[in-house]
Amino acid sequence: MKAGALLYLDLIMVILMLVLAIGALHARSLRHAVILFIVFGLVVALAWARLRAPDIALAEAAIGSGLAGALLLAALRDRRPGDDATRRAPVWQSVAVGGLVTALVVLLAWAFLEVQGGRANEPLANIVQATLHESGVSNPVTAVLLNFRAYDTLLELTVLLAALLGVMSLGPQRSPMRAAEPMAAGLIGWLIPLLILAGGYLLWVGAHAPGGAFQAGALLAAAAVLAHLGGRREFQLPGHTRLRLLAVAGCAVFTLVGVSTLLGSGVLLQLPSDWAGGLILLIELFATASIATALFLVYLGGHPPSWNSREVHPDA
Amino acid sequence: MPDAATLYGLLGIVLAGLGAHAAIVQRDSIRRLLAINVMGVGVFLVLIATAYFGPNQDPDPIPHALVLTGIVVAVAATALALALLRAFERSDDE
Amino acid sequence: MLDVISLLLIFSGLAFYLAGTIGVLRMPDTLCRLHAVTKADNLGLGLLASGVLLQLSDPLQMLKLLLIWVLVLAASATGGQLIARHTLDQKPNGDPPEDAR
Fold first, then answer.
1. Hey, which residues does A88 pair with through a beta bridge?
2. Which residues of chain C make contact with A190, given a CB cutoff of 8 A?
3. What's the CATH code, domain B4-93?
4. How many domains does chain C have?
5. Are 3 or more Cβ–Cβ pairs between B and C shorter than 8 Å?
6. Across chain B, which distance is largest between two alpha carbons, in Å?
7. Pairwise CB contact (< 8 Å): A85 & B30
8. Domain spans of chain A?
9. C76 chain-A contacts, CB cut-off 8 A
10. Given an 8 Å threshold on Cβ–Cβ distance, is A214 in contact with B69?
11. What is the percentage of chain B residues whose pLDDT exceeds 70?
């Protein structure tokens, strides 16, 4: 009975996600498409919660829907009036591609059902459960991210840094927004301290409950984006030297920890189980700062005006 | 009766297909970025669906960690793509 | 008994959400839609939140729910005001703008 009711809820969610995705992909106006994409992200966050992935639900709501939405809306603002967003391939191409994609989807679905039918429990998940007590944290996702598969996370932070360097080298940031009206400005003034508090809470709680460096970094970045959107002058970003240091701090501290474990035990990023909890918190602290800095700077879409004083930007 | 993992996994595959179709058919760059993002969500859904073992059993945390980093990488890549677009438009204007 | 009150609150909250949603779909212009959706949804949210609140036993969880409630109220009020201001800026003479869809 209970499972049946849940299944109906699942069906509604699935239909809702399909409709929103089709809207985001094919809505006539690009603005509608972007707004539908943001709504789609929020419903997907609900789906993550439904599939018992609360860590991902938090990240999706903050990053996949929130920050990506802010990025896309800012990109819409940049577009020139003449840009036509309704161009698409001729109908015969569209139908041909549709046929090929349908075939691919059917094959993939077949393969997925084959795999899905034959599995009971993943051996890797059991290994994680069995060795969780040695990882220094009790949230299995954090344990995988920062201990068992710390390599992946280090490389992922490097990818983020590379994307940031790419954005920074492409040109100056967007022109700033006008100052917010009193009501929005008041809300922003309340929200920013709350976001910082919530970020700190998520960072700390990530050791034993959903949360961690990614979600905390996303919230801090959201606070910075809000301050920027509201045009509030009293929230100043750190100077460009400190911003640069913050952007690389995550990778740097992570690598330093890795090298010291290499010197200590001979294995890169093999955290000793006595210190693992502290080391994970240390890495996460700096990773949060780097993730927040990187996400905010890529939102700006270019380097801040103070970034490189030798360069001349005629359009800045 | 299909279980939730199968349902959401199939949804992920369909979303990836819809995204792939739109990424090829649409000609506008921002629309193509949206399409690639929808494809990404589809892939993430498949991964998380395979990690789900029902309401009474803990899910597999390894795909969760993968998808968590994947979301951050996806938004960073989107931002880089948008910055590239802006740079192209600037060079067109000059 | 508590469950019955809670269910009543939740269902009346959902009814207000339904009314607000119908308002968004059927009203002729942005300001009317905004009027329908902000009023009905704020009331619906309040009823829904109080209904869920009765089901909680942990005071910390109640506090979190109240915080969420206040945040959503503040955000939706501000969002509504921003949309309304934007609409009026588009049409400075105060005429209801024609449907932008």
1. B26
2. 74
3. 1.10.287.3510
4. 1
5. no
6. 61
7. yes
8. 137-308
9. none
10. yes
11. 97
A187: β partners: none
* CA angle A301–A228–B75, rounded 5-degree value: 40
E strands, A164-232, are none
For residue A148, what is the DSSP state? I
Domain boundaries, position C44: 2-90
Say how far apart CA A128 and CA A122 lie, in whole Å. 10
Query: Which residue from A8, A2, A311, A279 is spatially nearest to A147, judged by alpha carbons?
Result: A279
Alpha-carbon Rg for chain C, nearest whole angstrom, is 17
Q: Touching check for A181 and chain C: CB below 8 Å?
A: yes
Q: Is the ipTM of this complex over 0.90?
A: yes
Q: Do C85 and A181 touch (CB under 8 A)?
A: yes
Residue carrying structure tokens 């161009």: A87
Q: Give Rg (Cα) of chain B.
A: 17
Chain A nearest C-alpha distance from C95 (Å): 22
Asked if residue C80 is part of any domain, the answer here is yes
A303: β partners: A172
With tokens 């902000």, the residue in question is C38
- Asked whether residue C101 is domain-assigned, the answer is no
Q: How confident is the model at residue A210 (pLDDT cuts 50, 70, 90)?
A: confident
Cβ of A78 within 8 Å of Cβ of B86? The answer is: yes
Are the Cβ atoms of B14 and A105 closer than 8 angstroms?
Answer: yes
Specify the pTM: 0.89
Q: Which two tokens stand for residue C72?
A: 């959503």
Of residues A25, A30, A112, nearest to B9 (C-beta): A112
Q: For helices A182-205 and C59-90, what crossing angle results, to 10°?
A: 150
Contact state of B34 with A89 under an 8 Å Cβ cutoff: no
Please write the tens of the pLDDT for every residue from B31-64.
999 999 999 999 999 999 988 888 888 888 889 9
pLDDT along chain C (101 residues), means of 10: 89 90 84 82 89 89 90 87 84 51 39
